Every structure is written in structure tokens, then in C-alpha cells.
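Whiteboard transcription, Tuesday session. T.W. wrote the C-alpha cells on the left side:
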């Protein structure tokens, strides 16, 4: 009778993992465990496999390669990955390419895995004969998965951030003693130059540490925002009112370093006073920083001697229009069509979350978001925000 049950194929190069998987799930599912990609492909060719669960990091054929071939040869098989947090990058790729429906973080718990496998078998059973049903299912899955990846990222990012914050607090304590330290320097044998240099550093310490603290807190609230990715937000709660001009200045200052490296100047063009908008300061900061950074990166990517990223502000009726315009590389239509999809990126070090986040934040503030771009000419991102009453 067991032959009649849908087959779950598990691929992992570590024998211990295979044993645990088989023993803890074998009572409920029909499982075959193999140590590498080629053996998995042999099983896929020979038998009808409902669910393929693979490890990512394996010697020889990687999980990603296996998934790609499996998708090609047996598109109806539900593909999943079991992996560690550190592998988030290949997972993102796999999800964006539709290679996997779900991923499971190691160490997994039996009840969780049982549920996921039950779901997968059900999904396979009712969509194996309909491609349309299958792709709709995968899209829903993809969105759900993105949400949980964002959660995992948040979790990983929070740790170093908290230690940064603690250290910033410690430095602030030191800064409080800077006058005492300065007096103490008078009693230490030093050259005039050395003494002056140290005094200069001590005097800057207070502002440097408070900047450090502010940026860290800002980062922390941005990361909290990631957690919200994918969740629809309640418009009624967005009652923040923000003066956009200081935010524009702040975003310009934060991006300055990146811009200088990329040979871009950042400019503001617009009135010296702007109406207040209905959006929280943190969110507007986040949107502008993302857009200006993208602009600066696009200028850098063009490799011309010098380029410009301008923030252009204009008020119209009850709306404020902010354009972030760059004369960078621009985007070909196929990229333009996909930007804003979470995790879509063309940059090696990109996350592909920037524009997705911007669109979500502007949308939930009741605003509009538009991107225009021409390859070789540049890009203009326009956001239109409702002005506060
Ligand atoms: N101003 C721009 N000019 C050219 N390409 C852009 C610009 N902004 C975004 N892009 C393209 O959109 C992709 C997604 O951007 P984004 O969502 O900010 O994620 P990331 O910056 O992490 O790649 C980028 O990888 C890039 O290809
Ligand atoms: Mg970006």
C-alpha cells in the first residue's frame, strides 16, 4: 500500500540529517532520502515524486542546480529547501526564479515540517494536472515566503545593531569625561601636534557619538519596518504629519559619502519651505534615502566623470510632488518592468527591497509612486504625497 502514497524525496549530503529526516517523518510520509543531486535526479526520472526537499550546500551538484534541473524535468513536483539562515542569498534567488515553493530553516521542528509536507502533498495532489492552478499557488507561496524571509533578516540584523547601540552608549559615557581627559592631557609628555590632535578628537567625541546613536536608532526603526513587508497596512492609523524639507536635507547628508564615491552631486531644487505631508518622518526618510542611493549607484554605474542626483519638489493643490532624478545608467524595459518586486535586484550586493519598500510606504501613506527611466539617460522616480490639512 505504501507504494500508492505520494513520495517525498529528501536530498542531504549529511548522513545524520537523512536519518533524522527519515526516522521522524517516515511514519507519516513515504520518504526516500539520497545523498546528492545526481541520485535525486535518478529517482525523479524513475518515480513520480510529489515533493522534493533539498539541502542547499552540497559538494558536487548544489541544491540550486538540482532545483533548476528538477523544475525543468518535473515541473509538477513541489520543490522545497531546508537550509540555514546564512544561506539567505541563494534562497532569494531560488524564490525569485520560482525554483522553490518554500524553505525551511534548520534546525527544523518535526511538527512544523509535518505541516509543511502535508501542505506540499495536498498542493501537489490538486495542482499536478493544472499548470494554471500550480502557478497561482506558487505565487501565493512566494509572497508568504518573502514575508517570512523578511522576518528572518530582521532577526539577523537586530543582533549586531543592538551591540552597536550598546557601544555607542558606552562612547557617550566617555564623551561626558572629555573635559577631564583634556585637562589630563596637559600632564602628559606630548608634542604640540599630538596634543592638539587629541584635543580635537576629544571635542568631536560628543557630536560623533550622538550621530552614531541617532543613525543606529534610525537603522533599528528601518529594520522594524522590514518586518511589515508584505503586510497590508491600515490607512487610518497613518496620521503622521511631517515637514519634508529637513528630511530631504537629512537624506542628502546621509547619501553624501556614497555619492562622492560614485562621482555624483546631490542637489535640491524647490521652494525653501514645503507644506507638511501625511507620512511619518522615519518612513519618508527611508523612502528618500533609498531613492537617492539608487540614483547615486546608477550614476556610479555609468562611470562618467560626474553625474547628478536631484531632488525636485513641487506643490500642487493638496499634494506635494517629490522627484528624485538621476542621469545614471537608466533601466532597460525588462528591468523597469520588474523593479519594485521584492528581492528583485540587478546589483551583486543589492537586496532588491529598496523600491518595494518605497512603493509600500508611499502607498500606505495614501500617495502615488511612479518610475520613468531611459537606458543611458537616467531615471526619475516621482512620489506624490497628500499634504496635511
Ligand atoms: N535610479 C536607478 N537607476 C537605474 N536602475 C535602478 C535605479 N533604481 C533602481 N534601479 C534598479 O532596480 C533594482 C532594484 O532596486 P532596489 O529595489 O532599490 O534594490 P537594490 O538597490 O537592493 O538592488 C536595482 O538593482 C537596479 O537594477
Ligand atoms: Mg536600492
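and on the right, the sequence the group agreed on:
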Amino acid at each position: 500500500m505504501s507504494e500508492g502514497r505520494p513520495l517525498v524525496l529528501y536530498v542531504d549530503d549529511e548522513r545524520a540529517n537523512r536519518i533524522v529526516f527519515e526516522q521522524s517523518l517516515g511514519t507519516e510520509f513515504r520518504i526516500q532520502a539520497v545523498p546528492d543531486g545526481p541520485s535525486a535526479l535518478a529517482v525523479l526520472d524513475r518515480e513520480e515524486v510529489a515533493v522534493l526537499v533539498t539541502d542547499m550546500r552540497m559538494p558536487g551538484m548544489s541544491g540550486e542546480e538540482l532545483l533548476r534541473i528538477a523544475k525543468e524535468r518535473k515541473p509538477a513536483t513541489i520543490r522545497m529547501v531546508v537550509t540555514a539562515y546564512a544561506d539567505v542569498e541563494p534562497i532569494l534567488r531560488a524564490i525569485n526564479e520560482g525554483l522553490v515553493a518554500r524553505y525551511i530553516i534548520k534546525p527544523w521542528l518535526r511538527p512544523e515540517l509535518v505541516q509543511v509536507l502535508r501542505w506540499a502533498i495536498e498542493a501537489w495532489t490538486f495542482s499536478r494536472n493544472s499548470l494554471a492552478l500550480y502557478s497561482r499557488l506558487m505565487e501565493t507561496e512566494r509572497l508568504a515566503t518573502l514575508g517570512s524571509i523578511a522576518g528572518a533578516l530582521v532577526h539577523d540584523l537586530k543582533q549586531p545593531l543592538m551591540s552597536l547601540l550598546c557601544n555607542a552608549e558606552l562612547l557617550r559615557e566617555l564623551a561626558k569625561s572629555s573635559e577631564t581627559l583634556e585637562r589630563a592631557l596637559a600632564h602628559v609628555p606630548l608634542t604640540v601636534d599630538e596634543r592638539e590632535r587629541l584635543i580635537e578628537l576629544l571635542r568631536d567625541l560628543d557630536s560623533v557619538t550622538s550621530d552614531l546613536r541617532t543613525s543606529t536608532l534610525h537603522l533599528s526603526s528601518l529594520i522594524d519596518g522590514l518586518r511589515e513587508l508584505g503586510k497590508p497596512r491600515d490607512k487610518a492609523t497613518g496620521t503622521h504629519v511631517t515637514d519634508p524639507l529637513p528630511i530631504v536635507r537629512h537624506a542628502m547628508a546621509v547619501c553624501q559619502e556614497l555619492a562622492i564615491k560614485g562621482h555624483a552631486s546631490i542637489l535640491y531644487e524647490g521652494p525653501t519651505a514645503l507644506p507638511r505631508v501625511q507620512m511619518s518622518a522615519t518612513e519618508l526618510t527611508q523612502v528618500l534615502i533609498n531613492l537617492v542611493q539608487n540614483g547615486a549607484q546608477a550614476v556610479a554605474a555609468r562611470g562618467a566623470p560626474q553625474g547628478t542626483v536631484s531632488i525636485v519638489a513641487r506643490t500642487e493643490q493638496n499634494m506635494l510632488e517629490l522627484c528624485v532624478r538621476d542621469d545614471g545608467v537608466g533601466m532597460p524595459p525588462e528591468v523597469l518592468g520588474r523593479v519594485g518586486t521584492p528581492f528583485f535586484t540587478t546589483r551583486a550586493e543589492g537586496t532588491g527591497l529598496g523600491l518595494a519598500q518605497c512603493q509600500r510606504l508611499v502607498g500606505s501613506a495614501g500617495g502615488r509612486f511612479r518610475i520613468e527611466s531611459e537606458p543611458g539617460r537616467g531615471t526619475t522616480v516621482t512620489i506624490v504625497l497628500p499634504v496635511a490639512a
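Someone added at the bottom: Residues 290, 294-295, 298, 326, 328-331, 335, 339, 344-347, 350-352, 354-356, 379 surround adenosine-5'-diphosphate (ligand 1) (CB under 6 Å).
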